[in-house]
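Slack export, channel: ligand-projects

TW: morning all. Re-posting the request from yesterday since it got buried. We need the structure predicted with the small molecule present, not the apo form. The ligand is S-adenosylmethionine; the SMILES is in the block with the sequence. No rush, but it would help planning for next week.
GE: picking it up
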Amino acid sequence: MTAGVKYKHIPVLLKETIAGLNVRKDGFYIDGTFGRGGHSRAVLEQLSNKGNLLAIDRDEQALSCVLPEFNNDLRFELIKGEMSELKNIVGNKSLSGKIDGIMLDLGVSSPQLDQASRGFSFQKDGPLDMRMDSNSGISAAEWLAEVSEDDLKKVLYEYGEEKFAPRITKKIIEDRAVSSLKTTSDLAKLVIKALPKTYSKKHPATKTFQAIRIYINDELNQLESALKGSLEILKSGGRLCVISFHSLEDRIVKRFMKNASMESEQYRGMPNVPIEFQPKLKIIKKSVKASIEEIDRNIRSRSAVLRVAEKV
Ligand SMILES: C[S@@+](CC[C@H](N)C(=O)[O-])C[C@H]1O[C@@H](n2cnc3c(N)ncnc32)[C@H](O)[C@@H]1O
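GE: finished. pasting the full token output, ligand included:
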């Protein structure tokens, strides 16, 4: 059996995302974060024989676990790639400006988190890897073996919003001089030792793992590029739906949609604004959160925020 096949992912805010996309049955849609295809399946259910869905994922395993229902569907194509490349991927297919809707369901999938061998979780002992694309870049263990004290502190502050960044950094730097950090438990135990013993509902290593994962996968830059690319490839009336899972992502999405929905500052309130300075997006949904029922069914939906905008 292909590694990862037995792991499932429950799509979050599914009904809300499909409503946000306002699917046109003959339209061309993009799922920039295929995962296990929960959102893709729901879009395909709305499309006619003339509709199309192009899905992308940077994780080889998402492609090797794709179910026959997708492979046998002539309206569907799945490619390995990064969301930051959306503009080029779509441009190479001569589809720029012809896209009816784009979904981005950010972060990691449940199969990535649940498999110890992927090294994302402090709750499962595995190699300290954390790469969504296991074939590119360096693992978290490799990075932690060589990163400077200042850079590590900065990553923990900026991507983890971890106020104990200096203490954790000091502990990691001291410890790696004696023995290398190889596993997720090595790192989790170190963080626990570095922190004061105050009670918190969250695991003490939550923010550290989030920060290192975001850095290793360059997640925030990927998101910024994907948003800019989306704006260029959507057709007028096309929808952009983004689900984020923490405040750093959501801030980027919120700011992007807000800025793109305003006239450029120099022309604000003036008549006859040149087209390149006019708003490019219209905000459709400001922030949609999971219902209590959904959170009861799927705890991972508790931090999800969906934002929807339409290309003007
Ligand atoms: C939250 S899951 C998506 C789940 C999916 N909507 C479903 O219902 O099964 C996020 C997926 O996006 C992929 N991903 C994350 N960042 C990516 C990026 N920058 N480029 C391409 N794929 C990315 C991950 O590998 C993961 O499979």
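GE: first-pass observations. Strands lie at 28-31, 52-57, 76-80, 99-105, 234-244, 281-289, 305-311. The first strand starts at residue 28 and ends at 31.
TW: perfect, thank you
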